[in-house]
Specification:
heterodimer; A: mainly alpha; MetI-like fold; 14 helices; 77% helix; 0% strand; B: alpha+beta; D-Maltodextrin-Binding Protein, domain 2; Dipeptide-binding Protein, domain 3; 2 domains; twelve-stranded mixed beta sheet; 35% helix; transport (chain B)
Chain lengths: 337, 540
Amino acid sequence: MLTMIGKRLMFAIPSLIGVVIVTFLLTRALPGDPAAYFAGPAATKEAVEQIRKKLGLDRPLIEQFLRYTNDLAHGDFGNSLTTGQPVATEIRNRLPASAELTLLGLIVSIVIAIPLGVLAATRPGSWIDHLCRITTTAGVSLPVFFTGLVLVYVFYFQLGWSPAPLGRLDVFYSAPPTVTGFYLIDTLIARDFEAWRSALSQLVLPATTLAIFSLAPIARMTRASMLAVLASEFVRTARASGLSPTTVIVTYAFRNAMLPVITTLSMVFSFLLGANVLVEKVFAWPGIGSYAVEALISSDFAPVQGFVLTMAVMYVLLNLVIDILYGVIDPRVRLEG
Amino acid sequence: MKRRDFLKSVSGLAAGAALPAVPQVISSAYADARSETLLIVSEGGPNNLDIHGVGTNVPGYEVSWNCYDRLISHEMKAGPGGVPYYDRDKFKGELAEEFKIDDMSVTFKLKKNAKFHDGTPVTAKDVKWSLDRAVSVGGFPTFQMSAGSLTKPEQFVVIDDYTVRVDFLKKDRLTVPDLAVIVPCIVNSELVKKNASEKDPWGLEFTKQQTAGSGAYKVTKWTAGTEVIMERNEDWVGGPLPKIKRVIWRMVPQAGNRRALLERGDADISYELPFKDFQEMKANGKLNVVSLPFSNGIQYIGMNVTKPPFDNVKVRQAIAYALPYQKIMDAVLFGLGNPMFGAPADKATEVAWPQPHKYNTDMEKAKALLAEAGYANGFETTISFDLNFAGVNEPLCVLVQESLAQLGIKTTINKVPGANWRTELNKKEMPLFTNVFSGWLDYPEYFFYWCYHGNNSVFNTMSYKSAEMDKLIDGARTSAATGDKAAYDTDVKGFVDLAFTDVPRIPLYQPFVNVAMQKNISGYQYWFHRRLDYRALAKG
């Protein structure tokens, strides 16, 4: 197992180097001149040049790149010009916000989609199969920001059930001391139950928005893979041997149907990180998605590079976790590895 | 049966996942905090708490305005609709107890009880250090100081601990007003020097993250891009103690949500909403919506006069007759702007800026002028705009495109990303574009100096050069400084007339700054910088 992890990590190094080079070049190729942007509305040509010098943008590209990689090696991601903060600190502060939201959205989605998919597969053509089809089609065809806005409009503006879409906590609660960065966990550690409730109620709408979006692929994949497994010979044998339907479905069929579902989950997780950008905008969520977009709009290189790099590292880790999960579910993968 | 059990357990799980929204528990402490706290929601937040910093954005100016004091500030007068509006010509002391303007200098006596947030008294050496800093750091602050002929540290002289003299470089009517803008704020010099380094002698890194002033508020928490929390400075002596104890300023990127927050009564104040929203909120009357014209500001269509076809004055006049002015007012602004067109033909030019020009939408005249210029069949061109203000600019450009098509002019719309806009303006290559300019100092010659003078500043976006124009502008600046009213009036009328006959840029309207607030919020004041002044606001 350990050698496999080591090997996978080794393979990841070249792709990370590639990511560093490509993001560096891409951000430099962006139209727009950060020096002119940050010199302010009333800048003269000299003022723009002064700023360019201060930012080190007057140097040749290769020198800028060497300095950038050198800083990276020292754990320095540079400074964001739009927010004025070091990128590493910002990402560290914002990543948990995005992760908490995405994970919760994914969990909600799994809890609904997998049973729905399994049920639809065991009774194809029944009402539950149609329900599955309708929900998934609807979920995937609604753009996330639209679902988000509709939810805000209905549950906050019209009904008043949900709190104001103002980020992770109600404005009058203070954030819990950071342990994990996940407010749901940190508030419990701090034993601040009122804040826990506030954090949870703030999470409900954005997490639901993400869940609705991600229902479709998970449910469809579960259904398809369950159908295939249920039609296979070992299930027929199990049924013929008089095993109870639950044992057949859960122990035999479901475990075998899990592999493609896990693969889909990893893909869905990556989509969700992308979809997050819009959800974060709608719910004023202080996550990394909205941070990266704002940086991109103002040609702010450092956060964009930091964001892409963080994402690349996360994908590498995610793929690793998925590979390990394969091994847990399917002994054949373990043997081959 | 077994299958049914499975179903049951699954639906139970699903119900558990869809957690019901928890209604807000309102404890009494919570309600108290609410009544003394102002919750502001806006699209963007500051990137730097110090206006002297590199690339501080406009929301950062709001922090500086409320957390730092200046030597002097403006008095208020009744503005349009009875809303308090800053009085361009009347000054009052903020840190200065009294000030005396002489022929070639102005002397300030400081309030002896003024203290910085950390308790150290505000003295003359802080004033000198801060003003030296403003003229030395480079970039925007230095540029703004130079607009009032404040360029050298030697101009700021410490007389004693509580007296400072500012020497004039030359006679300039804008020197004293320039000491009342946001930039010449007084910084706690000892505190900042302690945190400065060799590489950063003015301590910009330190003041970026925290306020080091003597102002009415101090920043207690700032999470960039998320929120700014400010608390009242109980020892403020710059004016009467503000009524609002705490200001929470949250960034809410979605305009629709900002409106929802206002209408539900959760947020107290918001700006930067689409005009349509302001218009609707005004109409339904649940909130107070204040709309006031930008002082010394105009949205215009500019033309590059160095290149054909716009180097021909007849073409420019033809365009001025072809613009759909009224449609822009109705469909883009929903009436929230002052028209700057269609003045009656016999109206005399005033000594004022902005004032409307005499062009109106008249396609026949436009066609005739275009034919005279030799473009009877029209031409092809590109109209550019800044995507950061797409809400106004995009529909505006579409209307212009539609209107010009009637003259046979084919226009392609070029959307320039915000980050790129300034670069594009600086290149001065766009043939046709729309933009806004507004000056902090509300004087006609100031506007014209930046926008029409042949020294070709970045705001002379048309690259317009005219010896006659330069003579009039320079003349007005000199006569304003010496107080020669008659000469000044002739020159101002002269340059306004010339700007309208030569039309390198066509003024469309004077934009409004719109602010929506709850009915229980009072004390809103309009300032030249168009941001909020929390010190005058009250709740309840």
